[in-house]
Design a protein that fits this description.
- It is a single chain.
- The chain is of the alpha/beta class and about 600 residues long.
- The protein contains 25 helices and ten strands.
- The chain has a six-stranded parallel beta sheet with strand order 3-2-1-4-5-6, with helices on both faces.
- Helix 2 packs parallel to helix 14, helix 6 packs parallel to helix 10 and helix 12 crosses helix 14.
- It is elongated and about 90 Å long.
C-alpha cells in the first residue's frame, strides 16, 4: 500500500506537469487538460480516490493550497494600475462583477431550484476569470489593441476582487448556518471580515517592512514569504474559522500596493510553487467530481453555461463600456471572452468540502456545476474566439511589429528608425537605466525580463510578429528565441552575434536554439556599436526597378544593411540561412555615415 501511495503522489505531479506542457504547446488554458486528466483518473477509470488517499488531510491541504494561490493572485492587484487602465476596466471589475453575480445567482435559483444561499455562492464564484485562461486566448486571437488591453487587465484584476466577493458570501452562509437570525449572521460575517482584513493588513505591512529594511537575507526571502503567508492563514483560522483565505488575500493586496518593496523574487517563487500546486490540486479536485451529481444537473447546467456566454457576458460588456471609444463590435467581443479558471475551481472545491462537512443541502452539486461552467466556457471560447474576432473584424491583421529584447544603444537606434517609419516596436529589458533612456527617446518599452512569467501575463504582443533579440547576454538571447518561437514561429525570431574577434568557442552560444543570426557571425553587436560610436546612423533608402539592390551596394559599398521592408510591410533581416533578393518597392535600412 505504501508503494501504491507513492506511485499515486508522483503520478499526480507528473501528470500535472504533462498537462501544463501540453497546454503551453497548443496555446490553450492548462486548467482544461488538468480537469480532464483528473476526471479520467478519478470517476471514469477509478485509479484515483483523493478521499482514500489523503483522508482527513484532504480539507487542510486543499485549504493551504488555495490560500497560496489566492495570495499569489492578489500580489498582482495594484490600485495604481486599476486607476490607470480606463473606465471600462474599472467598471468591469466592479459593476461587471455585480451583473455576472446577479445573473448567475438567479440562473441557479430558478433553473436548478437551489436555495438562495447556494445560488448566491455559485454566482460569486463564477465572477472570476484570470490571466491563466485569458492570456492563451489573446495570444491565439490577437485582437485589436483596445480590446486586448481591456481583456488583459480585467483578467489580472478580477481574480482577487472576485475571490473576495466569494469569500464574503461563503462566510455569510457559514454564519447563517451557525447563528440565529440574519442579524447575528451579519455580525458574524463582519467579525470574520474584520479579523481577516486586520490580520492580512498587519501581516502584509510587517512582512513588507522586513523586505524594505532588508531584515531578511536574499536567500531566505522566498522561504520567508511562504512562511509568512501560512502563518497569517493559520492565525486567522485560529482566531475565527473561515477568515484565513480573506487574510492572505488582503495580505497580498497590501504588499502589492506598499511602496519601495521589491517583490520580484517573491513573485517568481510564488509563481513556481503555484504551478506545482495547480498541477496537483486540480487533478485531485477533478478526481472527486461526482458524475452522478453532474448528470443530475443535466440540461440545467448547459442552460446556465449558455446564459453566461450569450446573455450575461455581452450585457456586462455593453453596460460597462457606455461612453467608451470601443465600437459595438469590440464591446461584443469583450463580452464573449470570459473563460472561468483556476480561482473559480479552487474556491468552489474548498467551499464545497467545508459546506459538506456542515451538511448543507445541495453542496455536493456546487463543484460539478462550477466545473461544467469552467470546461464549457474554456472549450467554447477556445474554439470560437478567433473566428468570431475575424467575423467582427476586431482581430489584428498579420502582425508586422517588432519585439526587441535589449535596450542598449544599438537596439534603441534600430527601434527609433522603425518607429519613424510607422512600425509598432516594443523594447524589453530588465536594466532600468536603459529602459529609462529608451523612454526618453519616445520608444515604447516593457520593464522586466522577456522570458519571465510576469512577461507572459503582462507583455502585450498585439501587433507584434517578429523577435529581434539584441541583448548583450547571449544566454538571454537564446532563451528569448526559444520562448517566442512559439508565438511568432521559428522563421520570425532573430538574434545577433555577441562574439568578439578572437573569442574562444567555449564562450559562444551555438545551435538552432539561439534563433536565426543576422548575417551569421559576420555581423556582431560590437561591430554595430562601433559604427554608432563613429557617428554613423541608420538611413532608409527605397529601391526601384532602376535603382536595384545591386546598384545600391555598388553605390554604397561601405554601408551595413540591417533590415529590409517589402511592399507588404513585412520586415526581412539578412540571414545566411535564407537567400532573398530585395525587389523594387522594398526599402533597405543600413548604417551609413552621417
Amino acid at each position: 500500500m505504501h508503494a501504491h501511495d507513492i506511485v499515486l503522489f508522483c503520478g499526480i505531479l507528473l501528470a500535472g506537469f504533462v498537462c501544463q506542457w501540453i497546454a503551453w504547446r497548443v496555446k490553450l488554458p492548462a486548467i482544461l487538460f488538468l480537469l480532464i486528466s483528473g476526471i479520467a483518473a478519478g470517476p471514469v477509470l477509478g485509479w484515483l480516490d483523493p478521499s482514500a488517499l489523503l483522508g482527513d488531510l484532504l480539507v487542510p491541504l486543499v485549504s493551504i493550497s488555495v490560500a497560496i494561490i489566492l495570495f499569489e493572485g492578489s500580489l498582482t492587484l495594484k490600485f495604481s494600475e486599476l486607476r490607470g487602465h480606463g473606465a471600462v476596466v474599472r467598471r468591469l471589475v466592479t459593476y461587471g462583477v455585480a451583473v455576472t453575480w446577479l445573473m448567475a445567482s438567479l440562473a441557479a435559483y430558478f433553473l436548478l431550484n437551489w436555495d438562495a444561499y447556494l445560488s448566491a455562492l455559485f454566482g460569486a464564484i463564477v465572477t472570476v476569470s484570470g490571466p491563466t485562461v485569458v492570456m492563451p486566448l489573446l495570444r491565439s486571437v490577437r485582437p485589436t489593441a483596445g480590446v486586448s488591453s481591456v481583456l488583459r487587465w480585467e483578467a489580472i484584476l478580477i481574480d482577487p476582487l472576485g475571490a473576495i466577493l466569494g469569500l464574503i458570501v461563503f462566510d455569510f452562509i457559514i454564519a447563517a448556518q451557525t447563528s440565529d437570525g440574519a442579524i447575528l449572521a451579519t455580525i458574524s460575517v463582519l467579525t470574520i471580515v474584520a479579523a481577516g482584513s486586520a490580520l492580512g493588513a498587519i501581516g502584509g505591512y510587517v512582512f513588507g517592512l522586513a523586505i524594505r529594511r532588508r531584515l531578511i537575507p536574499d536567500f531566505l526571502r522566498e522561504y520567508a514569504s511562504l512562511a509568512a503567508v501560512l502563518g497569517i492563514f493559520a492565525a486567522a483560522e485560529a482566531i475565527h474559522g473561515e477568515s484565513g483565505l480573506l487574510a492572505v488575500t488582503v495580505m497580498g493586496i497590501w504588499l502589492a500596493n506598499m511602496r519601495h518593496v521589491d517583490l520580484e523574487d517573491v513573485l517568481s517563487f510564488k509563481e513556481s510553487i503555484t504551478l506545482v500546486l495547480v498541477g496537483g490540486l486540480f487533478i485531485l479536485l477533478a478526481a472527486r467530481l461526482n458524475l452522478d451529481a453532474l448528470i443530475s444537473i443535466g440540461v440545467g447546467a448547459l442552460m446556465i453555461v449558455l446564459l453566461l456566454q450569450f446573455v450575461a457576458g455581452p450585457l456586462r460588456s455593453f453596460l460597462c463600456s457606455i461612453g467608451s471609444p470601443l465600437t459595438w463590435r469590440e464591446r461584443l467581443f469583450v463580452g464573449w471572452v470570459f473563460p472561468r479558471g483556476i480561482v473559480a475551481a479552487a474556491i468552489s472545491a474548498l467551499f464545497a468540502l467545508r459546506l459538506e462537512e456542515r451538511d448543507l443541502a445541495g453542496a455536493e452539486s456546487l463543484v460539478p456545476l462550477v466545473f461544467t461552467v469552467i470546461i464549457g466556457t474554456v472549450i467554447l471560447q477556445s474554439l470560437t474566439a478567433r473566428p468570431f474576432a475575424r467575423f467582427l473584424n476586431v482581430a489584428e491583421p498579420e502582425p508586422t511589429g517588432i519585439l526587441i529584447v535589449g535596450a542598449n544603444e544599438v537596439a534603441q537606434v534600430i527601434a527609433k528608425e522603425m518607429l519613424e517609419t510607422g512600425r509598432k516596436v516594443v523594447v524589453v529589458d530588465s536594466h532600468f537605466a536603459s529602459i529609462q533612456e529608451a523612454r526618453m527617446k519616445g520608444i515604447p518599452t516593457f520593464y522586466g525580463s522577456a522570458v519571465s512569467t510576469y512577461a507572459d501575463e503582462h507583455l502585450d504582443l498585439t501587433g507584434l510578429g517578429t523577435l529581434l533579440s539584441l541583448s548583450r547576454q547571449p544566454g538571454l538571447n537564446e532563451l528569448a528565441c526559444v520562448r517566442f518561437a512559439e508565438d511568432f514561429g521559428r522563421d520570425h525570431v532573430f538574434t545577433i552575434s555577441n562574439h568578439v574577434q578572437g573569442e574562444h568557442d567555449k564562450h559562444k552560444v551555438t545551435g538552432e536554439s539561439r534563433g536565426r543570426v543576422l548575417l551569421g557571425d559576420e555581423l556582431s553587436l560590437e561591430a554595430l556599436q562601433q559604427r554608432i560610436d563613429a557617428g554613423q546612423k541608420l538611413k532608409t533608402t527605397k529601391l526601384s526597378s532602376e535603382f536595384t539592390f545591386e546598384a545600391y551596394l555598388e553605390k554604397h559599398p561601405k554601408r551595413q544593411p540591417v533590415y529590409f521592408v517589402d511592399d507588404n510591410g513585412q520586415v526581412h533581416f539578412p540571414v545566411i540561412d535564407s537567400k532573398f533578393s530585395p525587389k523594387a518597392g522594398w526599402t533597405v535600412s543600413a548604417f551609413a555615415e552621417a
